[in-house]
Write a structure and sequence with these properties.
2 domains, 3 helices, rod-shaped
Length: 196
């Protein structure tokens, strides 16, 4: 029987298998690298897109913050203008108050009541005077409550000085002027003399 040497054929088959293995390994490595590269590029594109959106949002937020600051400034200016307008309106309403007060006092003070002193304190007037009877004071309070200018008449005191004159009693009354803000003006208007 003849002997056939299969060793070169086996070596050649093993080398072919190794070449196929390395070729297949190279192809798998290239495909894996390509897949990793494609996936990393996809996620990098998404990250870049998100970063650009974040930058756009930051820019828009900065613009909105600037607008908010302008709006706050405008609101403060509006409040200042409203305050000024209210002061002007208040001055407009109260510029003739002195004349109106004296005119209204002439209407509400009945016969038998004599005023000796008027004091304006803010938006109220303190009336000091003399009265022939308590009925006259009651009539005066009713007239004040019906008045378009005065309100909240408060009779603080009625005193009779028997040593001087039994016919007249001294009184103090406080009334409020409608529609006037309490400006803190403590200026006094003092009238000496009698008003009937």
């Amino acid at each position: 029987m003849a002997f056939i040497n299969l060793l070169p054929w086996r070596e050649e088959a093993e080398k072919a298998q190794q070449r196929e293995y390395f070729t297949l390994l190279t192809i798998v490595a290239v495909i894996a690298f390509a897949l990793v590269f494609i996936i990393s590029q996809f996620y990098q594109m998404r990250i870049d897109g998100q970063n650009s959106r974040n930058q756009f949002l930051k820019t828009e937020i900065g613009l909105l913050d600037a607008r908010i600051i302008k709006i706050k400034d405008l609101k403060e200016k509006k409040k200042e203008l409203q305050k000024r307008t209210q002061v002007v309106e208040q001055l407009q309403r109260s510029r003739n108050v002195g004349t109106q007060v004296f005119d209204e006092i002439a209407k509400v003070v009945p016969n038998g009541v004599y005023l000796t002193r008027l004091e304006k304190q803010g938006n109220s007037i303190k009336i000091i005077g003399k009265s022939e009877s308590n009925n006259h004071l009651a009539n005066m309070i009713r007239e004040i409550e019906r008045s378009l200018l005065f309100t909240d008449a408060i009779l603080e005191s009625i005193t009779t000085n028997e040593a001087k004159n039994k016919l007249l009693s001294d009184f103090k009354m406080r009334v409020r002027i409608k529609g006037l803000l309490n400006s803190g003006d403590d200026g006094k208007v003092i009238t000496n003399g009698d008003k009937s």
